Inverse folding.
């Protein structure tokens, strides 16, 4: 019984580790994190850029606003060791403020270029933007281009349909509170945690059953042992 329980424990631990290692959250992707803000509001968007495995240092990060999205104001938090460049374009179609005045420019891209060593392997850096007003969309995608010191670039631009795991998923944030549960970010990790919790619950139940069975056995009377003596025979007279 104990050997079977140990095997169950080992299987669940190995399954949990494999799921964690295989989940999108555990891989070295460029992630986007939204702090507050919804459609029509201002929010903080953090791009977390890792130093890629088997790649040299990251020396440039460029995030582009999709052509069908118009964001009037983008402020960038200074990042030590990086130079900032924000490019703008004419809004198309025309865009107006709440008071009816036209908007002359909207942001098209934000680029950080390293003035020092950049992001090394095994490291990451955060690039924070205050953007607003955010568009009236459920999910805001932020195509990002990560350039390395050798001149090569990884384009984080691949769509992420539900259930898929592309090699270079586009960073995105969910702007609709009602759709938060369906957001790609964190769903894989939530599933892993749920299955791990279920596994440990099963193990706990099995251990409880084992303890009860053992306690019952310890209180059961011992079996009578054979004394090795033959029963007496009645005397037989001729």
């Amino acid at each position: 019984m104990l050997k079977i329980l140990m095997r169950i424990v080992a299987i669940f631990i190995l399954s949990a580790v494999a799921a964690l290692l295989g989940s999108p959250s555990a891989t070295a992707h460029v992630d986007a994190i939204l702090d507050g803000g919804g459609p029509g509001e201002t929010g903080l968007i953090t791009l977390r850029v890792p130093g890629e495995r088997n790649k040299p240092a990251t020396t440039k990060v460029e995030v582009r606003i999709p052509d069908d999205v118009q964001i009037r104001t983008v402020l960038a938090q200074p990042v030590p060791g990086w130079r900032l460049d924000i490019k703008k374009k004419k809004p198309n179609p025309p865009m107006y403020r709440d008071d009816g005045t036209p908007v002359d420019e909207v942001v098209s891209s934000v680029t950080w270029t390293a003035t020092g060593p950049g992001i090394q392997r095994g490291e990451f850096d955060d690039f924070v933007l205050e953007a607003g007003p955010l568009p009236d969309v459920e999910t805001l995608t932020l195509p990002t281009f990560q350039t390395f010191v050798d001149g090569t670039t990884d384009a984080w631009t691949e769509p992420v349909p539900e259930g898929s795991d592309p090699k270079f998923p586009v960073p995105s944030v969910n702007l609709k509170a009602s759709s938060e549960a369906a957001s790609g970010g964190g769903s894989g990790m939530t599933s892993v945690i749920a299955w791990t919790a279920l596994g440990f619950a099963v193990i706990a139940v099995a251990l409880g059953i084992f303890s009860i069975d053992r306690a019952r056995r310890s209180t059961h009377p011992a079996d009578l042992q054979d004394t090795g003596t033959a029963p007496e025979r009645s005397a037989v007279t001729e």
Notes: The helical segments are 2-22, 187-219. The first strand starts at residue 31 and ends at 35.
